[in-house]
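Progress against Task 2.4 (sequence-to-structure conversion) is shown through the following example record, which the project officer requested during the mid-term review.
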Amino acid sequence: MSTSVGPPTVEHPQPRGISSRLFVLALLLLVGGAIVRSAIATRLDGFTIDEAYHIAAGVSYVRYADFRINPEHPPLVKLWVGALLSATGFHLSPIRMFADKSDERDFTEKDVYLNNDFHSVQRRARIAMWALNGVLSFPSCAHGDTSTRL
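Structure tokens generated for the chain above:
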């Protein structure tokens, strides 16, 4: 008859973390506050030097599946904004051949500033960007298991 004698088992209490629900609520408040702050802080700002360029490029990507305008920049954000603007009414001239980058920029700026209400274009583009930032902020909430503790 052999019995093994070993050190006694010691149970350590599990540290209590915040619940997943509390984490999600805090995250929603933080991201929502950041979006509201951004909306207030930038409400009087104009377009940056290349915003109109990216917006028109995004609309052309969505409408025509034509990636000739501004292909040197990654398309994700341009596609996101272009999808919203295409769906909400953005006039885009038919795509033509461009002599150079300056001609391409002139084409896009004419469409954004002259063929559309640029204030409305800017407002809708910013709403799209705030929505994208909100969507990208919540991947940790997508796992669906609210019983786990951090």
